[in-house]
Amino acid sequence: MKVMSLRHSLFRILLGGIVITAGLILLSVWNATNDLVERNLEQELRVDTNILQYIVEEKAKTLSVSASVFSSAYEFKGAFATRHAPTINSVLQTMDGRRDFDFLIMLDLQRNVITAYPETIISDAQSAFTDAFTRFDPSSVTSSYVFMGNTLYHAVAAPIEAPRVIGYLGAGFALNDAFLRELSEVVKAEVIISKTTGDTEQVISSSLPASNASGLMVAGETGMSWLDVMFGDDALYEVRTLTLNGIDHLPVKISIALDVSEQYQRFIDLQAVVISISLIAMFVSLAIAMRLSRRVSEPVADLVSAVNNIADGDYAQPLQTSGRLSEIGELAGAFTRMQDRIRSREERIRFQAEHDMLTGLFNRDFVEREISRRLENNDAFQIIGININGFRTINDLYGYTNGDRCLRVIAERLTRWPGMAARLAGGELLFSPQETLNDLQLETLRHILEQPVESQSLAIPIKMSFALIACPEEADNAQEVFRKLNIIADESEKRGRWLVSYEQEMEAAYLRRLTIITELKRVLSTEQSELSMAYQPKIDLRSMTVCSMEALIRWNNRVLGFVPPDEFISIAEQAGLIEQVSGWVIERTLIDLADFRARGYQFTVAINLSTQDIQQPLLLERLTTVIEREGLSAGDIELEITESDLVEDAAVAIHNLNRLRDEGFSFAIDDFGTGYSSLAYLKNLPVNAIKIDKSFVLNLTSDTDDQQIVRTVLHLADVFGLTVVAEGVEDASALQLLKEWGCEFAQGYHISRPLSVSALLEWLDETGFRVSAKEKL
């Protein structure tokens, strides 16, 4: 779309209004002039028709009188009685000298032409009179119009009596150029007689020269137009057809051409005045448009400049406009309000884009950009990753409202320290102090942040761990900073320390962790043979009989080699892969157990489950399905759950364990003594046995404290009616002590190391322990 200036637009509007107004005036005047001319023409046409009719009739009366006189003359009657043409012609020639007519003709009673004067009309007279006069009146003179020899005549027919009617004398005068010129002088208009032949119209007589008359007839057909008036000849004519009585039967037309130059000249003069006024108005409009546009365009230009500043993000410039137009002032006020609102909205959007809405701290995106900017400037600064330990537990125990309250309070405490503070996710914070903090300052910061948070009459305890990175020495980009903070956080959790600085050795551990996750996913999805099962025998100390096997998973990876179960199991739990691992263990173990049953062995198999496993109904349903598929029963399986897993989510664990116990499964608490369960809690667990952790059994023969702990656990189990399995039996002395103290079952390297299926079958054939039918714990 073409863009035009305000000045141009105003001028076009004013000019358009003037042109349209002038055009309407001229059109109105033109229509009024045409109407006036038409009315004048109609009036004049009626007058001229009456005059022409009157003149023709008066001349016809004179002709009738003359014809009557001639027809009554004795010599004429005598000549006519002879019926001798030369004699009659001689008399007619004598009469022609006294004539008021242009021709004479003798007709008999049958209207046949006997002779005529001049003789040249005889050939046309017969048909012309026959067409014009249907009959002759024998008692009076009959008149009519006759067309002969390309000339229009007004003719009369007088009876010749001797004494009775013996014939008729015809006479007539021509409506020729001379007659029409005389008539034109009377009616003050040009008279034209034309003959119509098909679509062609030919002028046969006229008060004007023939060429001029033909032109008027053509103009009369098309009518008068504005172009004719403006660019035609000086004389302007309107042509109209006259209606005369008795001419209808002839192929001729009588027209009158009236000069209307004077009437249209008034229109031309008025048109010149209107055009002159319009031109003057155009120049005045141009001046007005220039002035108005200047009054409007200058403040509008100021507004455009201000809007461009707003578009460029400059909201500080005040909006100033010139001019006294109230609309411009209102528009400027609207722009000012828009500027303020946009500035406010942009500040709010920028704040939302750069800050965490819960705490008001900066968010991860802003911190990433700020760290990148500092690193590009080669600034040296310290990054402190702050983790709220057990933040999920705070949400679970105290509710999300109180959890959010803790975050806001901690954020408010952190912002009191000079530096950049941000919330990355959940309970993960980041702080970059203005000056590097030493150990004492870090201890002080930790002490301040760990103060209990008061919320709804609760004092919520807070524990934190710090991860330190020195930039740019230990990280040269933002992504590296975040990655290493995660590495340090994992290491802090492993070491159990609240403050951990980045060390190069952590990188290898982190990469190994990522490799374990990647390779474990691949192994579980491809169903290849890297994973395998090993079984460690348990013996019944009362009968020294092999009664059960603990199923232990082994992984020999193509990249990492042998990966200890304690390492990859914990990583699988954190990476969400433990359900797949447990599913594989259940499938493989029950297949092997079915094979042992087929070989005649009746020992049970113990399978380790994590807290995530016992919270998955689908996994537990799969356990039941595989048992039924392999032809086993719930009594063939022992399920071992670590004490810490039970404590983590007791309600769900107890519910699921009770459901499985109702189906016939038995349970044992693994690694008993390393958790924090109370005696009341232990009493409510649907378990059948407890396994003393090997850390209390390895040095049993030499460590009196371990001896006291083991004897206490044995007494406690006896009180609760539970059987006891001692893990980590490394020598015969420890085995003997356990047997003497009443421990029911034992396992350890002294009995056997974990063995593959083939190795276990060989061990069963060679062992000194008894291998008997199944016995329940």
Structure description:
The mean pLDDT is 81. This protein is of the alpha/beta class and 777 residues long. It has an eight-stranded mixed β-barrel. The chain has a five-stranded antiparallel β-sheet with strand order 2-1-5-4-3, with helices on both faces. A hairpin with a 2-residue loop joins strand 3 (142-148) and strand 4. Helix 8 (261-311) runs parallel beside helix 9 (326-354) and helix 15 (504-526) crosses helix 16 (565-575). The protein starts with 5 loop residues before the first helix and ends in a 6-residue tail after the last strand. Helix content is 53%, strand content 21%. The chain is built from 25 helices and 26 strands.
- Helix/sheet category: alpha/beta
Report the average pLDDT across residues: 81
- Rg (CA only): 66 Å
Helical amount: 40-55%
Structure annotation, total helices? 25
Characterize the overall form: elongated
Gap between N and C termini, in Å? 92 Å
Most strands sheet: 8 strands, mixed, barrel
Task: Say how many strands there are.
Answer: 26
**Major beta sheet, strand line-up:** 17-18-20-21-22-23-24-25
In the predicted model, the low-confidence regions spanning at least 5 consecutive residues are: none
Strand content: 15-25%
Summarize the structure in short.
The chain is an alpha/beta fold. Helix content is 53%, strand content 21%.
Question: SSE layout and pairings?
Answer:
Blueprint: H1 6-72, H2 74-82, H3 85-96, E1 103-107, E2 113-117, H4 122-132, E3 142-148, E4 151-161, E5 165-174, H5 177-187, E6 190-197, E7 200-206, H6 210-222, H7 226-231, E8 237-242, E9 252-259, H8 261-311, H9 326-354, H10 364-376, E10 381-388, H11 391-398, H12 400-414, E11 419-425, E12 428-433, H13 439-449, E13 453-455, E14 458-460, E15 464-471, H14 478-495, E16 499-501, H15 504-526, E17 531-540, E18 545-557, E19 561-563, H16 565-575, H17 578-598, E20 604-609, H18 611-614, H19 617-629, E21 637-642, H20 643-648, H21 650-662, E22 666-672, H22 679-684, E23 689-692, H23 704-720, E24 723-726, H24 732-741, E25 745-746, H25 757-766, E26 770-771
Helix pairs in contact: 1-8, 2-3, 8-9, 11-12, 14-15, 15-16, 17-19
